[in-house]
Amino acid sequence: MELSINTPALLFPAISLLLLAYTNRFLAIANLVRKLFDEYNKVNDKQNLAAQIKSLRNRLNYIRYMQGFGVFSFLLCVSSMYFVYNMWQSMAKATFAVSLIALMISLIFSLVEILQSTSALELLLSEVEGLTDPSLLDKMLHRKEDSKD
Question: For an engineered disulfide with 95, which of 4, 10, 59, 80 has Cβ 3.0 to 4.6 Å away?
Answer without folding.
Answer: 80
